[in-house]
Every structure is written in structure tokens, then in C-alpha cells.
């Protein structure tokens, strides 16, 4: 019998994977793929076909793992996608040392039940859940995929299985962006026909929602951002300047919860945009110089819209904010009987870049950008804003101005709800779940937790993503998206994973019966359907 097939074996494998703590940007994340590779070599098929176990690397040296089972009977291939990084564990407080030991944590939590929210306390007392960082998001998904490839290779299933697991999903998805060309290389080398990309991210619900979901798409995410440049002055002479903080309030009010950014498709709607960061760029020290440079970052979700669509809407919103700011500022100037310092204008990053190149020369602009890029202690979002800041400081005559840009990451939306393969698979899974477990599986068209499925089956127009490239200051150096390869990985997508609750919270937990008994059967049903389909 193949490894990792019984509920007990699955739970044991899951707890082992979780114990290899792999928080994003830690040494554990770097070591995890090597532990995993050693584990997979225990599968007889991979002992005999070690060349089918390979690493791929991100630019910073982190690694992902590809494991390929070749049936020898078909070109048809199912790609199993997962990530092994987790978010941090500070939220566990005095129990942080147990966060990566699910069984011990679950037992210990009984001594601290009064600290838990009511729903989590009830789930703990039921004995039906396993608590711990990563049990739900998403070490259980990887556990299930390992079980599938072990069984497929042992029983010689008539379909090829490519297991792909990546680092960094929780931050920038550098792992998946590097996995895309690696998948393309494997597809070309072995002449594979990719029939389905299957992710097993967990079901995501709101508080109190007990429904079980499967997903035929994944929501998109993009981050419009701005650097606001005003006029500096001394606090003792406030009307001689215009603070960037004042300007930022107008943009934030226009962007936050703006219903124009909401999309509705197939009865589902994207969450409203919200601000993720708003701060000045004056450093940490105290100064009586007013803050004349500030940054704001926003989160926007996508269904059908492209980066181009969002940027056009962002510019419209920023121009409305600038108009409101100018009107309010001019009213204050009239009240104080002073002359305004100018009108707040709106520019895109690409416009600023071209202006700076004309003024300073392309070579000098490249030097300035390189200086900022080489400060590796800053994340890509900060680097993007600092590049704009560096250029505007050499083009101060443009102020007061709002410079619009895109920060990273960018997750294009993907959807396969109308694909015949997916439509048939949904019916088959729903029927099996009801017959075998009296479980109702509800189809959702867009996975709302954001996933690496965004980087396959891309079918957007080139001009749509070019808008991101042109207005992303870190593009091509610190951040890229393999759009061309993504377009070539044309295959439907699905997400079918375990039921759990409270991802990214200290009460993260996994429903054991669903994870160890129900989902394995549903995944096997799905793969049988794909492999036998004409």
C-alpha cells in the first residue's frame, strides 16, 4: 500500500510538515524544501526516478520543489499547486513555542479556553479540530498532494501528476512566479498536456459560516499607490507650505471603500478597496520642518478588470481628490489672506520618469534608481516609493503633485467556471460528496483568499498588464511576472482543499474528519474524472 493513505498517516505527515516551521523569510522556509525532498525520496517511484525530483530557485536563493510522476500511458497531466511558507507566530503569545506542534497545542489550549473566542472554544471542546500555524494554510494541502502522488505512482494511475510546492506565497509569490517557467520547461521536456491546475488552499469562510466550498477561480489583487509631494516650511510659518499629509487625506477619503472599484460577476462581488499604508517620508527623528512628502498604498481586488482598467480608475479618483484638495486649500488661503502656492496636479510614474530623463539624462536617472534598488533591507513596496521620492526631489518644480504608481505584488484574477472540464468536475464532486458523506459542496467562482492560481491560465490583453509594467518602479529589477509563460499555461483551474477556520490567526484550525477522510476521497474522484474524460 502506498504511503500516507490512512487518516492516521495523513495526520502524522501533516504534523511533521508543520513541525518544519517555515515562516516567510526565515531559515525554516529555506530548509523546508530539502526536508521535503528527503521525504519524497522515500516513495519507491522517486527512489527509482530521482531525476523527476527537482528544485527551482527564486532570485534570492529560496527554493521550490517539483515532483513528477509519469504514467507512460497518457500526455494528460494534472498539476498540484501548494505553498509551504506560513505567516509569523507572535500572535500565539505565551503559547508561541507550541504553534508548530499541533497536537500538543490543541491539548494545551484546553487549559486556556477562556482566552479563546466563543466559536474557537466550542470547536476546541468538540474534539473535531486540530490547531496550529499552517495546519490549515496550507500544510494540509501539501499533505494531500503528497498522498496523491504516492498513491498514483504506486498504483500506476493513467494520468501524469506534477506536484509543485513553492515558498513566499504569503508575501510576494516569488516562488510561484519562478515556478511558472519551471513548469513550462517540464511540460516541454516531457511533452505534457496540462489538463488542470489544482490548488488545495483551504475553504475560507466568514465568522459563523459552516459551509464547505470548492472554487473555480481565484480573485485578483493589485496595489495602487501614490507619493504626495507638497511644499516644505517651518511649523512657525504654516501657510508658507503645503503638507503632504493634508494632501493624502483627500486621496485616502476618495479611495477608501470606493464603490467604483467593486466588481460583480456571477453573483459574487470583490471587497471594497482599503488603505494599507499612509505615512510621511520624513524619517524617525523629530523636526520642525513640515512633512512635505508622504506615501499611501491601497489594496484593490479584481475579477475581470486589468491593471490598465484599475490605473485609469485610480487616476480619475486621484484627480477628484486633487480637485477637492485644491478647493479646500484655496478656501483656507482666502480666509488667511495669503496667496496659494499652486495647484495640486496628478502625474503617473511613467510621466515622472520621462520628465526626469529629459531633465537629468537617462544615465543619471539610472544611477539614482540603482542607488535605491541596492538598499536590500527595504521591501519592494518601500523601494518603489523611494524611487519616486528620489526622482521628485530632483524635479521639485513639479510640486505640489500626486505621483501615481503600482506597488507590488500583483495577482491577476483567473476563472474557469465556464470551462467544460471544470463544470463536469464540479457536478461529479458535488454528487460524490453528497453520496459518500452527506456533505454539501457549494461552488464559489472566485477564491477570496488570494492564491498562486493567479499565475497560470492568464488570458488578459497585453496592454492590460503593460500598464502595470510601465508604472511599477521596481519592474524588471526586483520584481517581474512571467506573463508570456503564464499565457502558454492554458489549462483550467480549480481549488479544492480542506475545511478550516481562522487562517492567519492564533486560532487557526483544521477540521480533522474533512481533511483526513472526506477531502482525500473527493480529490481522488476529481482526478479519476479528469483522467478518464474523453
Automatic annotation (TrEMBL):
InterPro entries for the chain: Peptidase_M20, Peptidase_M20A, Uncharacterised_RocB
Highest taxon of source: Bacteria
Pfam assignment, any one: Peptidase_M20
Alphabetical list of PANTHER family matching this protein: ACETYLORNITHINE DEACETYLASE, PROTEIN ROCB
Cross-referenced Gene3D superfamilies: Zn peptidases
Name of the molecule in the record: Arginine utilization protein RocB
